[in-house]
Write a sequence for this structure.
C-alpha cells in the first residue's frame, strides 16, 4: 500500500530536549515536505526537499532542521524545542511536479511543556 | 507569492442539504488549485484539483468545484451532504513553475453535517 508514515504519532516533551520526528514514504517520490497545522492558521510549510541532499526552507523554518540522506526518509529535527512549537505536524510527499498529487502522513501531535 | 482565503471558518448544514464552501485566491503567477479534506484525527486527502481545461472539476465523494478566473475563486460544492462528510476542508494553490511547487493553504472550513 502506497503511504507516508510518521513516528511517533503523539509526543509530549519538555523545553530543550532534542527530538526527531521520522517520515518515510514508499512511493519513490522525489519531493517531500513538512507542514505544521495550528488552529486558525491552516497548514504552513516548514521545510521541503526536492531530492536526496537537496533541502530548503519553507515559510516557518525557525527552530527546525531536516535532512534527506535517503530518498524515502525525511526526518524533522527539533534541537531545542520550545512551547511555541506545540503543534500538529504533517509530512507529505509528491512524485515530482506541481500537477502531481501530494500525499500526507497521518500527523504527529507534539506538545512541548 | 500566493495567498488563499476561505471565507467561512465553519459551515453547519443538515443532512441531504446542498453545501458550498468558498475559496478565493491571490497570486502573481498562474496556479493550480486543490481541495483537500481532513477527517477527524487523520491526515489530508485530496478531493479534487484543477490543472487546466474544463472549469468544472469533479472529485471524490460527489464533490465538485468550479474555477472562476475572473473572480479568482474555486468554490467547492456538493448537492446533498451526508453525516460522513463532516470534516475540515482546505483550499490550496500551487504555482505552475518554480523550485518548490509549494502548496499554500487556506485556514480551513469546518463542515459539520447534522442529522
Amino acid at each position: 500500500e502506497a503511504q507516508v508514515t510518521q513516528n511517533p504519532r503523539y509526543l509530549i516533551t519538555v523545553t530543550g530536549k532534542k527530538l526527531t520526528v521520522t517520515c518515510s514514504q514508499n512511493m519513490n517520490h522525489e519531493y517531500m515536505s513538512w507542514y505544521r497545522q495550528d488552529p486558525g492558521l491552516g497548514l504552513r510549510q516548514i521545510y521541503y526537499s526536492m531530492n536526496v541532499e537537496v533541502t530548503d526552507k519553507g515559510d516557518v523554518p525557525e527552530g527546525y532542521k531536516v535532512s534527506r540522506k535517503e530518498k524515502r526518509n525525511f526526518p524533522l529535527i527539533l534541537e531545542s524545542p520550545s512551547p511555541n512549537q506545540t503543534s500538529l505536524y504533517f509530512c507529505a510527499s509528491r512524485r515530482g511536479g506541481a500537477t502531481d498529487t501530494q500525499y500526507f502522513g497521518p500527523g504527529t501531535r507534539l506538545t512541548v511543556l | 507569492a500566493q495567498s488563499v482565503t476561505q471565507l467561512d471558518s465553519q459551515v453547519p448544514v443538515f443532512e441531504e442539504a446542498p453545501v458550498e464552501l468558498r475559496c478565493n485566491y491571490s497570486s502573481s503567477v498562474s496556479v493550480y488549485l486543490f481541495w483537500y479534506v481532513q477527517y477527524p484525527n487523520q491526515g489530508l486527502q485530496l478531493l479534487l484539483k484543477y490543472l487546466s481545461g474544463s472549469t468544472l472539476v469533479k472529485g471524490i465523494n460527489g464533490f465538485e468545484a468550479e474555477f472562476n478566473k475572473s473572480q479568482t475563486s474555486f468554490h467547492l460544492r456538493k448537492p446533498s451532504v451526508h453525516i460522513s462528510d463532516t470534516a475540515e476542508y482546505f483550499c490550496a494553490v500551487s504555482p505552475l513553475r518554480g523550485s518548490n511547487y509549494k502548496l499554500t493553504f487556506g485556514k480551513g472550513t469546518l463542515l459539520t453535517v447534522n442529522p
